[in-house]
Amino acid sequence: MMTDTPIKLREFPHLSPAAFQHPADVQAIVNLRKVPLLAPLIKFISSSVFEKQMRLMSISSAVRLGPNQAPSIYQKFERAAAILDLPELPELYVSSQYVINATAFGVHKYQITLYAGLIDFLTEEELLAVIGHELGHVKCQHMLYKTMAYLLRLLGTEVLYNLLPAGTGMLATIPLQMAILHWERMAEFSCDRAALLVVQDQAVVASALAKLAGGSKKILPELNLDEVVQQAQEYDASSEGLVEKLVQVNLMLVQTHPFPIVRAREIMTWAGSEQYQAILAGNYIQEATSPALLLTEPSGKVCPACGRVVNASAQLCLACGSSLKGARRVCAQCGIKVFSTWETCPGCGSHLQ
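Now predict its structure.
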């Protein structure tokens, strides 16, 4: 039981996602933005009715949790959000589907769904870690891309064909599909870090990930995390030969998540890093407490060094003087991630030009 969790766990006021976001996640987003088809796809998704349909499906077929509905789980949800400094909570649902999974979805209104198999299979601490992982997608502003990836899997490439000139469909959609799948895998590393920040115990996160790989309660008392790390190292070493590397690439082409064993090794490595220890000690990149004070334009840039939000036209951060080259652009009104080519914010409808 987690009776002492609220007392022991540290919170991270004004935590910026830049404090813990995995470099591969950041680079994958940069690469994804370079794909020509991204802009029309984002515009289509932002203006579509799919989000409303998904919410109606959740309301009709799942239980929405709250302070008066399954409070023991919802309190974990609130606790994880407080640790990661997420003042606005998504909607939280529990589905009766008996799978070991959880999902995050939404463009304008976020929702997180926990599945019955996951809740039954995990310990209380591991469930908190998974909740922290899903909230990590919200914290890192992954939701637009997560929704994009989900709809592509749900609808297939037909949605892309309808957005493209005749005869260009198959050739043009492959780079975008590959870029989205690669980003989706890299984003999981960032959210595993968010899970660790929430539970602050590497063994809890690693054991939850190992369960995804092993899938049997009977072996859990004998689970050796050192052996898990060694197994991940064997996987890395297996790419040394040409045939083995080709097999690995082929396996990853259809994967939306990195393999659980690799993720377990990755999070245990980060748990021993100076970056993680500095965050625990309170030394981390923070979001601006009053970002609007520095903004006079409809969109801004998030300084990668200090987390302050300044005008999009600025070349240097007004707070710390750091370069803003490659900085994330956000809407001045709602803070959602936006692109320089957008005229309207998909989050709040504000004009960006």
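The radius of gyration is 20 Å.
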